[in-house]
From TrEMBL:
Cited InterPro entries: DNA_primase_C (IPR058560), DNA_primase_lsu_euk/arc (IPR007238)
Superkingdom of the organism of origin: Eukaryota
Molecular-function GO terms, alphabetical: 4 iron, 4 sulfur cluster binding; metal ion binding
Listed name of the protein: DNA primase large subunit C-terminal domain-containing protein
Source organism of this protein record: Polarella glacialis
Gene Ontology biological-process entries: DNA replication initiation; DNA replication, synthesis of primer
């Protein structure tokens, strides 16, 4: 049944090992979406005008969009366009580790956001979180 299949895929049932997601090359090679389906690579699925509209909605700069267009038009380098998108959305990131699987993109994005949060958080004193002497009854 459906519940078992989902639990099996996430390693909660059966052999208790999660299943690996498809990599970007396999997703890129898949046939296009049809009604009600959502899968694949946005850089392959959308034609350039649609992709430009989507990138505009996602607040991607014109320079980054032009670079993505070049990569797609001059060799269908969808994975490289994805890395360019990642760099546009994560200023200062080099895109290392992105473009192999959607999961890798997600993990690297989380790392970038955690790094940014740590850099933007106020410095904490070395005894932060320690009870004061008065609270200890001293």
């Amino acid at each position: 049944n459906y519940t078992y299949d989902v639990e099996h895929a996430y390693g909660k049932k059966g052999h208790l090992q999660g299943q690996n997601a498809f990599g970007c090359p396999k997703l890129i090679a898949m046939p296009g979406e049809s009604g009600g389906q959502v899968h694949g690579c946005v850089f392959k699925q959308l034609d350039i005008p649609q992709l430009r509209q989507q990138m505009h909605r996602w607040k991607v700069s014109d320079d980054s969009m032009m670079e993505m267009e070049k990569l797609i038009n001059n060799g269908k380098h969808y994975q490289l366009a994805c890395i360019e998108y990642f760099k546009a959305q994560h200023p200062g990131a080099d895109g290392e580790g992105v473009g192999n699987t959607p999961g890798d993109y997600f993990k690297e994005s989380c790392r970038c956001h955690i790094k940014k949060d740590i850099a933007n958080s106020p410095a904490k004193s070395s005894n932060a979180g320690s009870p004061s002497p008065a609270a200890l009854g001293a």
